């Protein structure tokens, strides 16, 4: 397991909300990638967290790009460095976008970036909604969740669709490496991102990053929620390397999904039968993932 580097490339004084999981995500990403990194960021919480120009709290070059253009911006930065003869192992180019800017608005540019084989790391910090613009549902908002565009009450209009499986979407592009990581396990997160850094070609990292504001949870429960997501198998920790699945960390004992849901106000409206349905879906997806691991390792 990787040792957490002591050097901080993210300073104090952000505009992040209390308990912001995305703040932890960036801090660990930069510890993993190091000083020789260029980050490009679209419209998202992290477009405002660094502070108001000319202030910033990141000690690396930072490029802001349009909401839909993270993959294209990464490709452009990498092409410029290539033209100057700078090797990808010398300077890392990383796109850092929320779930909306990755799985929805930015998916076309992301797909083009990885399909072209651009040597970058594309990172999605997943807080499961468009949090910066008012907690609207995204393709990564889970089934049953309240958002401002999936209201509850008498209409029972909570999110009716499952999360997009970005790991499968990226793996379908044939890229050499994808991995899920969680802010609850920083040492493992740093290890997997450093692994991705050393692999030539396009890589994709899916970071689980709870949002107290949008999830209606206590800011002090952010890491607890991240651990529960793993222990319930709501968010499994696995990697896909050249098509081979590896569940690199498994819960010693599965925890009921209701223990995870009850800490979040966004699920408070759900009747018992909906909670049971979510449990069934989580169990089915966990079994399917284990089958994929077994099949691809044979």
Give the topology.
Layout lengths: L20 H13 L3 E5 L20 E3 L5 H14 L8 E7 H6 L2 H9 L5 E6 L39 H6 L5 E6 L3 H12 L5 E6 L3 H4 L6 H10 L5 E5 L2 E6 L7 H5 L10 H26 L1
Helix pairs in contact: 1-6, 2-4
Q: Mind explaining what this structure looks like?
A:
It contains ten helices and eight strands. It is α/β, with parallel strands linked by helices and 298 residues long. The protein has a single domain (21-297), classed as Rossmann fold. The longest helix is centred in the last third of the chain and has 26 residues, at 272-297. The chain is globular, with a radius of gyration of 18 Å. The mean pLDDT is 96.
Rg, Cα atoms, Å: 18 Å
How much of the sequence lies in strands comes to 5-15%
Q: Strand order of the main beta sheet, please?
A: 2-1-3-4-6-5-7-8
For the sheet with most strands, the description reads:
8 strands, mixed
**What helical percentage do the residues reach?**
25-40%
- Mean pLDDT across the residues is 96
Count of alpha/pi helices: 10
What are the low-pLDDT stretches, counting only 5+ consecutive residues below 50?
none
> Helix and strand succession?
HEEHEHHEHEHEHHEEHH
Q: In the CATH hierarchy, what is the class?
A: Alpha Beta
Number of E strands: 8
- What would you call the shape? globular
Which superfamily, in CATH terms, is the homologous superfamily? Answer: Thiamin diphosphate (ThDP)-binding fold, Pyr/PP domains
Which secondary-structure class do the elements indicate? Answer: alpha/beta
């Amino acid at each position: 397991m990787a040792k957490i580097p002591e050097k901080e490339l993210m300073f104090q004084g952000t505009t992040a909300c209390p308990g912001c999981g995305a703040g932890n995500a960036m801090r660990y990403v930069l510890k993993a990638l190091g000083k020789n990194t260029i980050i490009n960021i679209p419209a998202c919480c992290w477009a405002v967290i660094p502070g108001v120009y000319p202030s910033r709290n990141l000690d690396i070059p930072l490029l802001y790009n349009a909401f839909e253009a993270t993959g294209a911006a990464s490709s452009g930065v990498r092409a410029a460095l290539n033209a100057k003869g700078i090797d990808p192992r010398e300077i890392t180019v990383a796109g850092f976008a929320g779930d909306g800017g990755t799985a929805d608005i930015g998916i076309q540019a992301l797909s083009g970036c990885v399909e072209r084989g651009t040597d970058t790391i594309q990172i999605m910090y997943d807080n499961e909604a468009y949090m910066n613009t008012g907690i609207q549902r995204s393709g990564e908002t889970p089934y049953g969740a309240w958002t401002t565009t999936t209201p509850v009450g008498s209409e029972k209009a909570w999110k009716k669709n499952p999360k997009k499986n970005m790991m499968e979407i990226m793996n379908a592009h044939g890229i050499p490496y994808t991995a899920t990581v969680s802010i609850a396990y920083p040492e493992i997160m740093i290890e997997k991102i450093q692994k991705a850094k050393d692999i030539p070609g396009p890589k994709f990292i899916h970071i689980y990053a709870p949002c107290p504001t949008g999830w209606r949870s206590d800011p002090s429960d952010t890491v607890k929620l991240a651990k529960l997501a793993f222990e319930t198998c709501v968010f499994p920790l696995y990697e896909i390397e050249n098509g081979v699945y590896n569940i690199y960390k498994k819960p010693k004992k599965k925890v009921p999904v209701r223990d995870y849901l009850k800490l979040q106000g966004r699920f408070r409206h759900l009747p018992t039968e909906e909670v049971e349905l979510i449990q069934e879906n989580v169990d089915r997806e966990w079994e399917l993932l284990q089958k994929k691991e077994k099949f691809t390792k044979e």
